[in-house]
Design goal:
Elements lengths: L10 E4 L3 E9 L2 E7 L9 H8 L9
Antiparallel strand pairs: 1-2, 2-3
Keywords: Bacterial flagellum biogenesis, Cytoplasm, Repressor, RNA-binding, Translation regulation
GO molecular function, one term: mRNA 5'-UTR binding
GO cellular component, one term: cytosol
């Protein structure tokens, strides 16, 4: 695993077309902005694992 330190409004670039920007840091939470092509799926890990296990997707409340 590569571990990088970033501050608010700084960006990490993956490949030629994926950008992850630190939007907000508040306490122990970090908000990320992800800019990726529409054909690249992006999920939180718990959603990805649920989908991989065949569980139906649930909408956030």
């Amino acid at each position: 695993m590569l571990v990088l330190s970033r501050q608010k409004e700084q960006t990490i670039v993956i490949g030629d077309n994926i950008r992850i920007t630190i939007v907000e840091v508040k306490g122990d939470k970090v908000r990320l902005g992800i800019d990726a092509p529409r054909d690249v799926t992006v999920h939180r890990e718990e959603v990805f694992l649920a989908l991989a296990a065949g569980e139906p997707a649930r909408r956030a409340a």
